[in-house]
Amino acid sequence: MAIPSVDYIWQDGELVGWDQAQVHVLTHALHYASGAFEGIRCYSTPSGPAVFRLVEHMQRFLDSAKMLYMELPYSLDELCDAVKATVAANKLQQCYIRPLVFRGYGSMGVDPLDAPVQCIIAVWPWDTYLGEEALAQGVDVGISSWRQRSANAFPPQIKATASYLNSGLAHIEAVHHGYNEAILLNEDGKVCEGSGENIFILKGGAVITPPVSDGVLAGITRDSIITLAREAGYEVREESLVRSQLYSADECFMTGTAAEVVPVRSCDGIKIGTGKAGAVALELQGLYFACVHGENPAHGGWLAQL
Length: 306
Ligand code: PMP
Known about the structure:
This protein is α+β, with helices and mostly antiparallel strands and 306 residues long. It contains eight helices and 17 strands.
């Protein structure tokens, strides 16, 4: 996906021109995947652009950095302010936001601790991740032959850059097989998540999603959907799933900041429910979009105005 450039990127405490935000080829993270990132969205609302669940994202960013032994010289508040300042400087109404913390230039070798910790925040206009049609009609997914990174290899609960080698291999394989997205199972055969999305099914009227302890990212969209589904009167359970439960589900959908709320209409060529975007998936998608666009006052607290 090409990146539409904007004017400024926040780099190590200051806004610099898009083309000036550069690193050395011996940057540690390029060689040893010593980094972590976030994916956040800013949406237009009646009171101007607002960042969805900014504090939760930046807290997860700090948690990821901590688990990778990287100490950021910025507080949670400073990071949130930096995100808002970057969106504002680029005069964007809606955008994707990519904070990245990484080990920079200065030392080589597996031990990252002598390489400096660097941080950037980039923003760019980014429409739907899997496409407008995907949001309305649903996508086709396939179970990956690659297993989800093990919690005992590197933690799936954090957004380490290294995790996305695993996600990328699964996604490429799925696309080669003619699917839109991959679903990864863990080593025990439990359903985990998509390459960049959490997964839910609807069965017997209940909304079910795998627990974080099965090795999934604690998605912030996942958390929002759990809340919205409960408010809409659905029973929501965090429960392990095996692949056959995807095939026999009444509905299935995926959630993520980039992907938003995407119905899944088939898995491994087997129709899920009617083989069309499910009614409950679309209902929850509508509730989600209302929140991100500031149309649900009960969840105004999820939005950080610039
Ligand atoms: N799982 C993975 C592997 C992801 O990369 C993402 C995207 N961050 C998600 C789930 C969804 O997380 P969130 O809703 O916080 O974007």
